[in-house]
Design brief:
heterodimer, A: mainly beta, seven-stranded mixed beta sheet, 15 strands, 30% strand, B: 301 residues, TIM Barrel, eight-stranded parallel beta barrel, four-stranded antiparallel beta sheet, 16 strands, 33% helix
């Protein structure tokens, strides 16, 4: 199992959803669940000792480094990034509101910048708004995970960074194993050729940040 | 000089390997990638009149020897799907439009729209649910099959393939009913299910699903052989093809070309180039210069 990979978690009788691995420490693993739909709500009622049904791990992982890394997370995107946090990490942690910030305590005191959409905590705005104030050349790797429009804005700021920044992408998933085409971006299945994607591989003029297919395969625009 | 080209019901294909319906064919950009990966043509997702979300996950279950799926015929409806077809047509390769419906009129209308959108052929998904319920498929009712195929043939000029279900007790009767089709696609998935003994319940939300992959190849071979023996129609062989040898087995059973589905999920889109190179090796070693030279050689006269 590698940071960046995900599992498909089944709550019998309720449904199945993809969840990133937020802890990978030998035999100890975790998923981080936010109240969203019926499956996440059912998972939130689980108690220690309850049996969890899962398949996986699936997908590609992040390229890791022992050196300084920059971790840029939006909302529940922090869950996928959490296993990458080390003593040398600098975090740009963002969320819609202060309540939704995740794992801020895992960064050293002077190594974190917090942003919220509404300014209820930290700086007001998005990570891409504040990237200029960070010297990205000091980082061996840059990672980002969060809403697609957040990643789209970061793409333009990071596309020339070397080595390539890595994004963990997210799209609707049904099968998780490269069959149903629900999670595709520009012909690439995020469940098998992702979720981790190198910024150099992204086509900014394609579907990424513009369009996606919804649950029935209907093509829709991506809006805030 | 090895020639992998084939012609099936008048459609010329640069090689015998076509993407099967239901695999990586929801998004036009993915269809482009599949065609760039060596598939000679693609069959679309099965499209109906109305938008359908499909079933709640779990919709797939992996087995060591195959795959169970009950995606639930999710599709954006025929009018919206035209956009995906227009993206795929940029690769200038044949697109086969798969359609499903409950009545002959629906199948005919959908087929006509597919033709309007530029497909080279239509494929009728007869494994869709029969409105009469009881879990029966449209393809198990010979009278309905006959009416569907005839209605479609009256409406379109492109070749019409009837994709037959293996979940029937008398495939001959169904093939006879579908005899007005220009060809048969054999087979669709085998109805099956999985119970998780630790959850004490079925895994798929729809309970029943379709089994595909290696496990069903002997079933597919049997159906292709049987229909090729008794009917004079070109056949697309499909079910469990992972290697060129699997494809050769279908061709020797009477198939003119084959479709590949589950293997694309297992191996990736590069399976098509793998099949092409394996087929060349096989033909070279065994002394075949054309795919057609292998067609039906296993059939007993």
């Amino acid at each position: 199992m590698k940071p960046g990979q995900f599992i498909m978690v089944w709550v019998p009788g309720v449904g199945e959803i993809p969840l990133s691995l937020s802890t990978i420490e030998g035999r100890r693993k975790s998923i981080t669940v936010k109240r969203y739909g019926i499956v996440s709500q059912a998972l939130l009622k689980y108690k220690p000792g309850d049996r969890i049904f899962l398949r996986g791990p699936y997908g590609t992982g992040f390229t890791q480094t022992e050196e300084r890394n920059l971790i840029i997370g939006g909302g529940s995107g922090m869950a996928a990034l959490r296993p990458l946090i080390n003593d040398k990490s600098f975090g740009m942690v963002s969320a819609k509101t202060g309540d939704e910030l995740l794992f801020t305590h895992e960064f050293k005191e002077n190594s974190i910048m917090i942003m919220t959409d509404d300014g209820s905590s930290g700086l007001k705005g998005f990570p891409s708004d504040y990237l200029e104030s960070v010297d990205i050349d000091q980082f061996a790797k840059i990672y980002a995970c969060g809403p697609e429009l957040m990643l789209k804005a970061l793409y333009y700021k990071l596309k020339d960074a070397r080595p390539d920044a890595e994004f963990s992408m997210e799209r609707i998933m049904k099968c998780g194993i490269g069959i149903c085409d629900s999670c595709s971006i520009d012909g690439r299945q995020i469940c098998v050729d992702g979720p981790v994607v190198r910024v150099g591989e992204i086509n900014p003029d394609g579907e990424f940040g513009h369009q996606k297919l919804d649950i029935s395969g209907r093509r829709i625009e991506i809006h805030l | 000089m090895i020639d992998l080209g084939v012609s099936i019901a008048g459609i010329d294909l640069e090689n015998p390997f076509v993407l099967a319906s239901g695999i990586l064919d929801e998004n036009g950009y993915t269809l482009v990638e599949v065609l760039r990966s060596g598939a000679s043509a693609v069959v679309t997702k099965s499209i109906g009149l109305e938008e359908r979300k499909g079933y709640i996950p779990p919709v797939v279950y992996e087995l060591p020897y195959g795959l169970l799926n009950a995606i639930g015929l999710s599709n954006p409806g025929i009018e919206r799907y035209s956009h995906e077809i227009s993206i795929a047509l940029r690769e200038k390769k044949p697109i086969i439009g798969s359609v499903f419906g409950s009545t002959p009129e629906e199948f005919a209308h959908l087929s006509r729209r597919m033709e309007d959108f530029g497909v080279s052929a239509v494929e009728l998904n007869l494994s869709c649910p029969h409105v009469k319920g009881y879990g029966q498929e449209v393809g198990s009712d010979p009278n309905l099959v006959r009416d569907i195929v005839r209605s479609v043939k009256r409406k379109v000029d492109v070749p019409v393939f009837a994709k037959l279900s293996p979940n029937v007790s008398d495939i001959q009767a169904i093939a006879e009913a579908a005899i007005d089709a220009d060809g048969f696609t054999l087979i669709n998935t085998v109805k099956a299910m999985k119970i998780d003994i630790y959850a004490r319940q079925p895994v798929l939300s729809n309970v029943y699903g379709g089994l595909s992959g290696s496990a069903i190849k002997p079933v597919g071979i049997r159906y292709v052989y049987e229909i090729a023996s008794n009917f004079d129609r070109p056949i697309f062989g499909v079910g469990g093809i992972t290697t060129a040898e699997d494809a050769v087995e279908y061709i020797m059973a009477g198939a003119s070309a084959v479709q590949v589905g589950t293997a694309v999920a297992r191996v990736g889109k590069r399976v098509f180039n793998k099949l092409i190179s394996e087929m060349r090796d096989f033909m070279e070693r065994e002394g075949f210069s054309k795919i057609g030279d292998m067609k039906g050689v296993a059939l007993r006269r």
